[in-house]
Amino acid sequence: MKGTPNYREIEATYGYSYHYIRQLFRRITKISLSRYVLARKIENIAFEIRHTNKYFVDIAYEYAFTNPDTFTKAFRRIVGINPSEFKVSNHSCGRRIICASVYAPVILDHNNPKFTLPKLKAINEFGEMIRTPSSCILYGVPKVYFGREDAGAAQWTPFPMCLQSVLNYMGQDISYSEIMAYSGAAFRQRWDTAGWNVAAVDIRFTYESHLRPFELAFKCAGRSFNISERPDKPKSIDKDNAFALIRSELDCGRPVIALGVVGPPEACIVTGYKNNGEALLGWSLFQENTGMFGGDCRIDESGYFLKDNWWDNTEAIISLGEDIKVFTSVKDVLANALMLMTQERVQTYGGTSCFYGGQAAYEAWAKAVENDSVFLNELTEQWVCQKDSEVMLEEGRGHAALYLLSLVEKYPNAAETLMKCAKRLKTASEIVPQIRTARKANDNAKIAALIRQAANHEKKACTALKQAIGKL
What we know:
alpha+beta, 17 helices
């Protein structure tokens, strides 16, 4: 909402006089149109003050404030403090829905009742949300797919990718590296104590509780959430309630994350429904491989998958709240990371599964490679498990390093040790291309030696991380 609204264009667009539009707006929203426009400008300006290094005068000019004094007075009238005071305050800025499918900058923690703007009720049928009595489709949700890049690093873990896509659609600026760190996926290495197991890469085996990665990610992102599982799980939901939940969330303009729907029980994004929820649309990382995973999955003209009879292939539905609340502290995130990289055994799913973690996982992986050459055959479970372990190391530690580097300027007291930890983890991740080369050469001894080399770098990274936590 930069510049000044062109009221003649508004009149031409809606076919009413500006005088009538103002009256109608006040009647519906209980606030004058001029004040709403001013407040929206100020919230946009506040967002830029918080998230950019632009000069105040330049930001003000972009929003049609040509006089610095006028701008300062307007800002103070809406926010209650001057722009310079706001810059160093604890107020949090982000984005929130202001009408159906439209997310805009707001001051998230502002408690002044006069400042709170109403959410507009009207839905633009020709915008990003298309609704009929039996369907609703949200367009414009960013696509997820294996190998998608963020900050120059590839993405391979479904849930962090899906959560980033949904939060970005809802207007929250959050990186994949952050979600990888928040959930713990960036710091995990898992190896089944019974041997080769392709399930080890599943994010749900990161902690004792299979829901813990999801809960941590939402909490660190400041979002309220609800996880509903199938009837045989602890937080169960039946088919009818699942249908109702998805319909209600999408009707409010919020995409839903589900485990399954298309392919294995990995995260996907539900962006729409048809036939009152009997068919779902969305993005799945497995939707293109219809021969192996798709079943009756089709591709809609929008690019979204279109899946009938989805309930039997769905393990959980995860919905997000609108409000952004208190974020988890960085110190807690890093303490969790240290735990994951040093905890050497974890029992999951009520003790039914047991995995090695930390240094023990690397050593078990190396020994398996030394003792078993079967994994060199691309059709075996060992081969798939080997590649998944490589992904946990390369992708995980690569994004862990990016996350730690993002903290360096914010925490100068711990900057040196954060840098040391990031460099060690980055070096560990860069060993994976060497592992692939050795794999192609059928050099098992070399592969095992490289795995142990990566483990040693991670061990030293843990020492630096422990020091960094002590300085926060």
